[in-house]
Amino acid sequence: MELSWFRLCLLSYLRDSHPDKAADRQFIASRGDAAAEAYSAAIKSGHTHDEADEIASQTLYAGLHFSPYRTIVKILWDEFTDEIDPALAEGLAMELQPRLSPVFEKYSLSDDFADSGEYSLLYTEAVGAIQTLLEDGIQ
Description:
By secondary structure, this protein is mostly helical. It has helices spanning about 5-15, 25-45, 50-60, 70-80, 90-105, 120-135. It is elongated, with a radius of gyration of 18 Å. InterPro entries: DUF1896 (IPR015082), PG0816-like_sf (IPR036297). It comes from termite gut metagenome. This is DUF1896 domain-containing protein.
């Protein structure tokens, strides 16, 4: 797969925030191509390069601003510092994410979910679920 600048940006972001999607070559290709087309169309419409980049970024990252993976990492760092070495939190989050999917599926996750009132409910529920998993020996 040829990696354009937009595809590379998306791949980097996915590795950091949505590692479960980082191997989806079709997703990366289609989003990267759509972002490149959006950028090109914006330039042709008279937008500045900065404006075109913003338009392309909206296409590239739509639906990806909220990250369950990053939320789990944050919870491990903030709530379980005595139990989990912070250096191991990202690896553990990868293991925990599939087990916590029922918690996340209860909510309508959107790009601005972290700013919603439901975020604190999700956070609290996820903390409890993680605590239960850790007590059951998932580490």
